[in-house]
Amino acid sequence: MKIRKRKRINIPDLITCIVFFGMLIFMSVMTIVLPKQDFLEMENNYAEKFPRLSAKAVFNMTYMNKMENYISDHFAGRIGWIKGRTVLETSLGKRERNGIYILSGRLVEKIPEPDYASADKAIAAINKFAEKIDIPVFTMIVPTSAEIYADELPENAPNADQKEFISYVYQNLGRSVNTIDVYQTMMSNRDDYIYYRTDHHWTTKGAYLAYAAAGKKMGYAPVPLDLFDIEHAGRGFIGTFYSKTLYDGIEKDTIDFYHLTDGDRVTEVAVTANFGEEPTIRKSMYFREYLSVKDKYASFLGTNMPVVDIRSENGGNKLLIIKDSYAHCYAPFLTQHYSDITLVDMRYINIPLGQVVDIEDYDQVLILYNASSFMTDTDIRKLGY
Asked: What residue numbers bound the domain in which 47 lies?
């Protein structure tokens, strides 16, 4: 009769197994007991709320999907896990994460091919708007960093041709619209700090170059760069592209304020958050409280709001700007030439523009968007109402 030998327990494997399941249980418990955040600041996004259980939600799988997102958003140590995964993927040669390309010195957005049928509707709305008012209308579409640094993208990486798109828009805008082309200005200054490395916006230097280039068409003489004192107001800025990758291998950004040596002479900034309510009044274009949070770009006129009015002691005409957030660090330069500037964000306007502002009270209108947002924005069509 053979006697079976009892298998020896592999102690190292047993310890590994115990540690693994112990960590799994520990992290699960911590996920349950730790306080839950409504807003994930590092990722600039709202966290999934605990889903409400119902038979319908279970049947159509929305409950399970929301529960999965809830656990993912609130999992203990999730930022560390995500960063570790990003480091591992980039070490294996992957250079794209969540729609963001990871280059050697910057992060840039992956921009899909534009929907020209949708763009045609925006173009038609601008043309209709310009034709029905009796004041000059200017349009500036700014290329983003994905276009200016396209040669640094991974080989065969999908990336929309912004130069071609901007040319298409300008060629189809009517005679009532004056186009301002800053493409070559941005391209010829690409070696300067004109776009943030971790964010989708242009820097204050990039905005200044466009402001200077637009002067001849809009009828003002730009203030020379050497008349500004540059304040490095916010260091360690990590923007929207960082939020999508959580990749720490890119140098952090700096928020710069450009001050005229003899003073900015802005008397009032009125921010309208909700129609029917009194606007919030500020004395400066720079909202410094945002320099201490992650979204430091909001130090330029705050977060996106329906209407922002800037009034200064400088003489000049009144300007209406229809815009995206690229205008926030651009508008301060224009205060040297306009006594009143009103910025309107069409994403937050659900009534005709004429009910928001008296358009004929202005001397000029500037429509300012970056190319990426113009490609996808459907709210510009409201100009045609």
From this structure: 11-76
